[in-house]
Amino acid sequence: VEMRIWECCELLNEVVDDSDPDLDEPQIEHLLQTAEAIRKDYPDEDWLHLTALIHDLGKVLLLPSFGGLPQWAVVGDTHPVGCPFDGSIVHYKYFKDNPDYKNPKYSNSKYGIYAHGIGLENVLMSWGHDDYMYLVAKE
User: Fold this and answer.
1) Segments forming the whole domain that contains residue 107
2) Do residues 117 and 131 both lie within one domain?
3) Does residue 92 sit in the same domain as residue 67?
4) Residue 68 and residue 92 in one domain
5) Alpha helices in 27-122, H assignment, sequence order
6) Is 116 annotated to bind ligand?
7) 26-33 CB contacts, 8 Å cutoff, 24+ apart
8) 31, 55 Cβ separation under 8 angstroms
9) 56: annotated binding-site residue?
10) Could you tell me if 8 and 60 are in contact, meaning their C-beta atoms sit under 8 angstroms apart?
11) Is residue 86 located within the same domain as residue 134?
12) Which tens digit of pLDDT belongs to each residue from 66-110?
């Protein structure tokens, strides 16, 4: 899909992010409030204003026309995969819908598929709306 930034922003009116603590506000309101707060605090950083505006546009992945991915695959914190989900991850309760949640290969030990001390560069991380938007913007 090819569209203008504002068209994509408007699509967020159709998005419900169950992990968002501001469920009373449409996602587009969050984008505008974030961009305005950044503009106020950093008036000379145009690139940062734009970054604030587009930071959650990857949530369109929840919409059927963009794949209709499940909540656990799109929203929330970036976290290590292949090991038990840590209770400190924002809205941890939504991981019960993730197929890996009950996979004994990942939850059989504190480190799952990893060995103690292997280094962060060897840990696989989740992919979600942030990474999607980064790839779109990069292209």
Assistant:
1) 81-123
2) no
3) no
4) no
5) 27-41, 46-54, 71-74, 104-107
6) no
7) 27/56, 27/59, 30/56, 31/55, 31/56, 31/57
8) yes
9) yes
10) yes
11) no
12) 999 988 788 877 889 999 988 888 778 878 888 888 899 887 788
